[in-house]
Amino acid sequence: MAVDVVNAVDVIERDACRTAGGDYCGMEREGNCGKKLDAFFEDILSSLGSIADSHDAFVDEITESTIRKNREDNFRSSGIPRKYLGVELEELRMWSLKLPMTTLDGKDADFSLFDSFIADVVSGKPRALWLCGNSGTGKTTVALAVLRELCRKGISCAYFKMHRIMQDFEETKYFSSRGRKAGDVMKDLCFPRFRVVDEIGRYPVAEWEKFRMFDISNEVYESGGSSIYISNLYRKELSKFLGSACTDRFRGSAMTLEFGGTTLRGSPGELYTEFGISA
Predict the structure, then answer these.
(1) What is the pLDDT of residue 235?
(2) Cα distance between residue 90 and residue 104, in whole Å
(3) What percent of the chain has pLDDT over 90?
(4) Which helix or strand (DSSP H or E) is residue 228 part of?
């Protein structure tokens, strides 16, 4: 290929030299012919450079657009309910007064906490966030806003409800003919780098749920993943429900936020409804 290019340039040079009125015989470029040749090749190189720059810009634009689309597809395929497809963390900052959140020591929490959480997860630090408190106070909305931001940053994410997880495990026992095993359910839970597990503490058989929660938390702990866990139980009830073996897996890497107030569902203050979903 390189020889073909050299030959082609040689032909162009010879023709250009003849056009300029010079003799071509492999000699050095001199006089009027050489000057015109230099100008001729400078024009070619300039044109090629412009074409290359345009091509690179086009490729960069296509690549960036593809990445954005893939990350948005990751968000939409993460299993979140349709109601929350329009959730945005930046919008929630404006609604923060409607979300009374307190930390373990009783201090009010602001949204900078979620920025730090996202930065840690992106950097590869294992992190867990427990959101607990009354139903309808914004826990799931906040968690899925964080999930969306992480999707945009290229982190694989998924959303699960605890009672659905329990149903999946039960089906592996009673419908074994389908070929799906308990290990397959666990792989689905632990494969993403980040997951949201919602509705913890609602399954009718509490002992089974406690066992599965330990199993999940231990697998995520050992794999170095990050999660947000959501429950309508308050922190003391939640700690008692999970047991020390489970909560110990979160020591040093987790934070608990308690959401107070009354439900926002069905009220003018509800943060997101299906009528506010963005395209």
Answers:
(1) 86
(2) 24
(3) 27
(4) strand 226-231
Structure tokens at 184: 């397959």
CA-wise closest residue to 241 among 229, 252, 253, 228? 229
Dist. CA 23–CA 34, nearest whole Å:
11
CA nearest neighbour of 87 among 30, 135, 130, 151: 151
Choose between 194 and 40: higher pLDDT.
Answer: 194
Average pLDDT for 245-274:
77
d(CA 176, CA 125): 37
Strand partners, 102: 108, 258
What amino acid occupies position 61?
E
pLDDT band, residue 147 (cuts 50/70/90): very high
Look-up: residue for tokens 């992480």? 150
More confident residue, 8 or 265: 265
Q: Is the pLDDT of residue 73 over 50?
A: yes
Contact criterion met (CB below 8 Å) for 153 and 161:
no
Residue 132 near residue 255, CB atoms below 8 Å? no
Residue 244 CB: number of other CB atoms within 10 A? 8
